[in-house]
Specification:
Helix 4 links the parallel strand 3 (80-84) and strand 4 (101-106). The protein is built from six helices and nine strands, in the order H-H-E-E-H-E-H-E-H-E-E-H-E-E-E. Helix 1 runs antiparallel to helix 2. It has helices at residues 7-17, 23-30, 63-72, 90-96, 109-121, 158-162; strands at 52-54, 58-60, 80-84, 101-106, 127-131, 144-149, 164-175, 187-194, 199-207. The chain has one domain (7-207): Rossmann fold (3-Layer(aba) Sandwich), CATH 3.40.50. The strands form two sheets. The chain has a seven-stranded mixed beta sheet with strand order 5-4-3-6-7-8-9. Bound molecules: S-adenosyl-L-homocysteine. S-adenosyl-L-homocysteine binds at residues 58-61, 84-85, 87-88, 90-91, 105-108, 111, 133-135, 150-151, 210, 212-214.
Length: 231
């Protein structure tokens, strides 16, 4: 990045206009160099407020959605946060600036390896990673103060609910996953607060996330493009 790259602050100004008001979230976005999280052909667009393709047929989320999700998580400096869907690692990097530790799970090994290298480059020592199926959560590290799903599910898996502390907040895109024959705007980012007796649930905004896929990918050598085979 050139020394006085104006793009991060321009992005922050755009996010502010879109209604992101939490100064700590905006500062975390400003201090996270998104150009490190996108592939070479897209570095020119790294600070555009758009989602971009990453390997394995996945996407790095739009900065607005990253900022918004982070804001509604209401993070505190001592919190331990579980993220499902590491992808590029961008969302985890933003979260890591606002909490004690981020636990992030990804099912595609090539994505996880690249994300780990980025965390190392940026010296983000409070991000820990796991190659695995997010539908199982991370029982050894549970319970978490916050859980963020960055892949779409029809409903929140019970196992993840069990891994959230009472009073904890879970944010997830709920509804039909984007793509194929499904309506692409049929997901709603949803905030769930675990209460003593159950859940308080609040639908927030329409979103488009890639689906959360159960199990681990097949051996990429067996497919044409490294993406999952259709079931
Ligand atoms: N948070 C990412 C973007 C997420 S894209 C970022 O900031 O770049 C959604 C990611 O969820 C993809 O990388 C996808 O491989 C992953 N994913 C989908 N199903 C999963 C599962 N069952 N367990 C873990 N990760 C999953």
């Amino acid at each position: 990045m050139p020394e006085h790259d104006p793009r991060p602050i321009e992005l922050v100004m755009a996010l502010r206009k879109q209604g992101i008001t939490d100064a700590k979230v905006l500062s975390a976005i400003e201090r996270t160099p998104r150009e490190l999280f996108v592939e070479a052909p897209f570095t020119h667009a790294a600070y555009n407020n758009t989602a971009l393709p990453i390997p394995c047929g996945q996407t790095i989320s739009q900065p607005y959605i990253v900022a918004y999700s982070t804001e509604v998580l209401e993070l505190g400096p001592n919190m331990r946060v579980l993220e499902i869907g590491t992808g590029s690692g961008y969302q985890a990097a933003v979260l890591s600036k606002l909490c004690r530790r981020v636990y992030t799970i990804e099912r595609h090994k090539p994505l996880l390896l690249e994300a780990e290298a980025r965390f190392k480059t940026l010296k983000l020592e409070n991000v820990v990673t796991k190659l695995g199926d997010g539908f199982k959560g991370w029982p050894e590290q549970a319970p978490f103060d916050r859980i963020l799903l960055t892949a779409a599910v029809a409903d929140v898996p019970g196992i993840l609910i069990e891994q959230l502390k009472p009073g904890g907040i879970l944010v997830a895109p709920l509804g039909n996953p984007a793509g194929d024959e499904l309506e692409s705007f049929s997901q709603l980012l949803t905030k769930m607060i675990r209460t003593e007796t159950g859940w308080k649930r609040e639908a927030l905004i329409p979103v488009v996330f890639v689906p959360m896929v159960p199990g681990m990918p097949q051996d990429p050598r067996k497919t044409h493009d490294g993406s999952d085979r259709k079931r």
